[in-house]
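ok here's Actin cross-linking protein, seq below lol
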Amino acid sequence: MELFARAKVVRLRSHHDKFLYADEDEVRVTQDRDGSSANARWTVEAAPHSAGAVRLRSRYGRYLTASGEPFLLGMTGRKVRQTAPAAPRPANASVDWEPLRDGFQARLRTKAGHFLRANGGLPPWRNSVTHDVPHRTATQDWVLWDVEVVQLLTPAPRPERTGSAPVAKLPDSPPAPDLGKPPQAHGPHHRPSKSYATPPPTLEPVAPPPPPPPPSRLNKLESSLSFSAPLHKVEGRAIHYHIADDLGNVDEGTVGHSFTFNGSNLEELAHKLQEETGLEDIIICTRSPINGKLTPLRLQLPPNNAAMHIVLVQESSKVAKSFPWPYGS
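and the structure came out like this:
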């Protein structure tokens, strides 16, 4: 795949704006927002026995491996680990990943047909990495990765040609005529030519070359694939949320959850919360500072990226039935 063809070191950024991260214990693989860390950099190697496949080696010299061990009992996702190059591996484990392009992103597929997936939601799923086949629509994008090239491959020097034929010597040019003296007059009626008294014509100044054309969009895209500095995104809105129980109660002793939201409307926020929590039937509510009741949020978001403190209620809960139409009666 062309995204890896010239890459020596890459970073893989998930749908959650986090980077594939080799944990310090040299075994686990997680997600982390620190893209400047050496743990987020992976060396690309061509798989020796799989055409088009690659191997990704962490800073600890261990390969990104799709293991056969379930992440949680009863779940389909399996663990992704770091393993030593010479370590024995079960038959259902693989270190070869086949990159499949999807627009400007890539999916990494194992020989068993599973995809490298960056999980979201609540612990223990949050920041975990597994390999699986996505079944739910809300998690389809979790197998997409942005490939950021940190270091390009250095092309091998061309060997010098030996035994080449000698260059033929060109004949010497004839001497230039001597124009220092004007021709002599042949008689009393001939006068010297005036062309020798006039100065040589002056040369017009050479116009500077035109400026190069602006780079095309494709060149800008190719240049953006190679850099070593971490990405800097515009900070969005801070979202602080709790998940209420069936009656709408929240344990005030818990810290709650937070993330940065870069969207602009309520629909995008609901979709982001579904990814963060893994819940699909949620209602975004605010708590009244006067009577403490929960009210569904149905208008636009507060202006100026102001921070929001919200409570999530499931549509199937008892408290949702007390909300006005279209949620309750």
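fwiw Residues 26 and 82 are 6 Å apart (CA to CA). kinda neat tbh
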